[in-house]
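Quick one before lunch.
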Amino acid sequence: MQAATFPAPAQPPANLLDMDRQGLRAWFARRGERPFRADQVFRWIHRRGVTDFAAMTDLAKALRARLQEEARIGLPEVVARHLSPDGTRKWVLRLADGNAIETVYIPEEGRGTLCVSSQVGCALGCRFCATARQGWARDLSTGEILAQLVVAHRELGDTPAGGRPVTNVVLMGMGEPLLNYERVLPALRVLVDDLGYGISRRRVTVSTAGVVPAIDRLREDCPVSLAVSLHAPDDALRERLVPLNRKYPIAELLAACRRYAAAGPHRAITFEYVLLEGVNDRDEDARALVRLLRGLPAKVNLIPFNPFPGALWRTPPPERVDAFRERLLEAGLVTITRKRRGDSIDAACGQLVGQVLPRHRCEARLPAQARS
Ligand code: SAH
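Model of the S-adenosyl-L-homocysteine complex:
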């Protein structure tokens, strides 16, 4: 008797943006295709921004047809484009499930920085951040993280000199990248891959509120530049501003930073410090910060608070910002004040909101002891 044959269950097409080069090679290998074919497709997508398989002209016709059946390159829809007078651009990207995220491009003399989101909303609940107010809906997939680069390159075109406009990438958009480690890691690998975006590790920055175990993993897996949102010189104040501090207090965080700096591509760790008037901007706070960072290979990035509707905090006057910076400089700490870019289009640090569906309570994903 002949065995009944059933059609193989149809696999949904795989999103090739979800894979780093290793992953893509493995996917090709499972289809009996050679690794260099995967490399070719990888280059088409990430080096040349081509997402139509039919246009990948150095692939055999049969392979192109197969890719069209079994693979896809998932891109979000650009639902809004904002251009600030200072040249900063913000795109609002609608994801397949209706959520929206924001991506910001900041052009500067000789470089262009793309600020990329890693989650829909954020679960950390930092008190001074507009994204936190939105709550957290879900992690972004690797493909949704990398799609922000594909879209930005498509929107920006080549530079006048013919080069690519994105020279630096910072994971400083919506979300906490190190709470989405499994998806962020392959994306980082594609960013630094020579056949991908080919961006040097120093020019790729992960910013974290201080997820200590993930800092250690990143050091091992893909050391790129690290920025840490410190914002306060002691645990009592930091707990009020950054609830995650209850789980990973400053001493543990700085110990992880020391380990990272010993291995990372940049000797120095960048410490971000949002200046909130009357809260953490006094001279004594600056002196405490100096004591705290003594002996660490540190740079400080001061971010005068960027307001958003309903925020209770105030931005210190410029003289206060300068005086605070002066205290750090006197002590030999490399300190810059982050220029406020894109403020008029709500694209500055802490102003990104997107559209977060459904809204979870802030801190919903924090371990119990870290909740307020
Ligand atoms: N979750 C990561 C990535 C966000 S990066 C992190 O915490 O590092 C965005 C940076 O902007 C962080 O340093 C964040 O603390 C800071 N920020 C948030 N809200 C801000 C605001 N209203 N004004 C200025 N900086 C803000």
